Amino acid sequence: MLGDRRTVDTCIFATMNANVESLRHRFFERLAACTVAIDGMCNGAENMRRDASHAATLLDTPDDNRIYIRLYAWQPWCISLGNTQAETDIDIDRAHADGIDVVRRPTGGRAILHARELTYALILRLGEGLTHGHVYRFWHEWLATVLRTHFGTDGIVYSRTQPDFPQLQRQEPTRWLCFASSARFELLWRGRKLVGSAQRLYGTVLLQHGSLLLGTGHERLPYYLRACSNPDTVAAYLSSRSATLEDVCGRSISFDELSGAITSGIHRHGYCAR
Predict the structure, then answer these.
(1) Fewer Cβ within 10 Å of end Cβ, the chain: N or C?
(2) One of 178, 228, 249, 272 is an active-site residue; which one?
(3) Which is nearest to 91 in space by CA: 228, 211, 235, 216?
């Protein structure tokens, strides 16, 4: 009987793997035919408006099965809050006095100071077995391969564990800061977070945001947290927990270079890693 049970378990596991491989294959087929917009720099409110508008348009056109990708940056620098994060976490007056915008994202997660980075918005319809969890996994696996291939480094990997987020939400400084901890499948370099992502479902339409750090600036977020009594220490902690592409490559990486690598990777979607 024990041998029979092991055989059944092996068959179930093989079937599950086959289903995931089929979903991955269909996702990358859609990715190869996606619509990409490289929008450059916009202010925070306009960036969020465009992403929400794309999601609403897709929701209103149920026959549209394309994937939409928006690549953009932020001018001026902007603090974005997760959609359920308390606005009182941020000293908005101080941020504005320093020329930094403040906006709320439609997606979840914790605060980010968008400084020297490339932000992506991934917008697509789910269904036929494809869930938001699959998209989170497949996209980050693909993105890790794109970055490793373009920049010639093997050090970019995706996190294989999921932290205890309820516990993190009760602790300082992790309750405030997106880049202080990594969710499963987010990208890491030498254990430090390189890409932070968050999602929002509009019915069957998924909006996924992600920040890819080009250089420094994001670590200054603690200076705009109302309840942070030691911003120098927390900023140093945030720097130690996050990594930029400048750290990875030892040189400055521009928005244009990274957006070009991503769009080229889409055209060569078949080299995605597992």
Answers:
(1) N
(2) 178
(3) 228
Residue 24 tokens, joined: 């991955």
Partnered with residue 106 across adjacent β-strands are none
Q: Is 272 a catalytic residue?
A: no
Q: Which domains does the chain have, with CATH numbers?
A: 2-271 (3.30.930.10)
The full DSSP string for 127-165 is BTTB-HHHHHHHHHHHHHHHHHHHHT-S-EEE------H
User: pLDDT tens digit string along 161-173?
Assistant: 665 455 545 555 6
Mean pLDDT of the residues in the chain: 89
> Nearest Cα to 68, choosing from 78, 83, 53?
53
> Could you tell me the CA-to-CA distances from 210 to 7, 26, 224, 229 in Å, in that order?
41, 22, 21, 28
pLDDT, tens only, 30-46: 999 999 999 999 999 99
